[in-house]
């Protein structure tokens, strides 16, 4: 799936079937459903999931928890906007 197709799919009622769990989590986040996004990603045990988990806690406003997850992802908390980080992550995961 291409990034622009992913963006267009956010207007749909349900996520595309072909989305991996990372992209599915970001899809729900873009729809304003933080809880579902978090539920999808919270139990995954890898750096990509940790990055998304960090982003979600940063968005939530929980800097301490976000910092922990950025560390697990091997990343520093970005100085960019949440929108910029969401796009960076989305571009990385939709191609997986």
Key features?
96 residues; mainly alpha; 6 helices; 0% strand; globular
Largest sheet: none
Number of domains: 1
Q: What percentage of residues falls in helices of 4 or more residues?
A: 55-70%
Q: Low-confidence parts lasting 5 or more residues at pLDDT below 50?
A: none
Rg, rounded, reads 12 Å
Order of helices and strands: HHHHHH
- Count of β-strands: 0
Which strand-content bin applies to the residues? under 5%
Shape: globular
Total helical elements: 6
Structure, described:
The chain has 96 residues and is mainly alpha-helical. The chain has one domain. It has helices spanning 3-9, 21-30, 34-41, 47-60, 63-73, 82-93. It starts with a helix and ends with a helix.
SSE blueprint:
Elements: H1 3-9, H2 21-30, H3 34-41, H4 47-60, H5 63-73, H6 82-93
Short description:
This protein has six helices and no strands. With 96 residues, it is mostly helical. Helix 2 packs parallel to helix 4.
């Amino acid at each position: 799936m291409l990034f622009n197709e992913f963006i267009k799919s956010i207007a749909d009622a349900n996520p595309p079937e072909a989305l991996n769990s990372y992209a599915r989590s970001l899809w729900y986040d873009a729809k304003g459903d933080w809880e579902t996004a978090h539920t999808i990603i919270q139990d995954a045990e890898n750096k990509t999931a940790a990055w998304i988990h960090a982003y979600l806690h940063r968005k939530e406003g929980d800097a301490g928890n976000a910092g922990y997850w950025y560390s697990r992802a091997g990343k520093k908390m970005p100085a960019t906007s949440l929108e910029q980080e969401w796009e960076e992550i989305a571009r990385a995961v939709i191609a997986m």
